[in-house]
């Protein structure tokens, strides 16, 4: 039974916590004993709630139980950290067992169509907890590190298929509930360098500002250009979960700078895009061929993750301070197996023929694909090698 998986493991964690507290109580001074006693009372309250939801008579769905479990897990983490017990071996092992079972239950849940519907029915605090749980698991997606940190303990990174399922589940739930994972929202204001956009992307105006001492690019979607703004905003959110040396990193979502609108916040790269770079260095720069190799590596990573960029062209290929490629602008990126496709083409550049004349190729609408991305990267290689940029009608 689903309920018997991780909730009893959380009960085991609380039992272990009580044993550790008893040991601390015996060793503590009279002043410190009062604090230990208070923490034990908090732990007992959590234990009673977990015990109640563990009963076979519970009317909660599997999705609701998992959301409740994650909420309790956060409370337990706060208790353990408040008493500086993170390195206590007994607690570490009990938490590890509980966390592994929670992730296993998550995988089972989203792998079944009927249960997937239960996830999409979540609302309120349960929906928020479920999104936060998925976000935390997705944060440990780096398959080059077999062991990662989850909460206080380590678990194995999720597989590629599991990550894709998690992303689809999170995107649909976020769209239905209009919620975001708590840690995805930027905490704190951004000081804009100018009240006016300094650059324009295909589908968004880009402002430059300062956030926590760093210079950042803030991309605000231009709502007058498309009726599908929510879909584009959802795809911007997904960028947070994809990390690669040749992809532009992502701070998070800014919900404060533009009331009623969301903006994607990324590092601002002073060197600009590959066009600007070529203007300054010239086509004879031997770094160019290394940059093209990095570009291909970045696109391969996206395709391995079943992500279609959809707008790959020189203005979206940036150069960082160390002279490396950073692929940017995922406003058109989409899951390769998604059933929702953009009906709009990108601005400028040379695209695969089926994107201009989709009817002739048997498509009913504009249909970005991996093949179209490969065509686009071939075009970029031609542009760079010939120092001619179609989108800009520019010869360097």
Automatic annotation (TrEMBL):
Coiled coil: none annotated. GO terms for biological process: signal transduction. It comes from the Eukaryota. Residues 192-396 form the Protein kinase domain. GO terms for molecular function: ATP binding; protein kinase activity. GO terms for cellular component: cytoplasm. PROSITE patterns: PROTEIN_KINASE_DOM (PS50011). This is Protein kinase domain-containing protein. It comes from Meripilus lineatus.
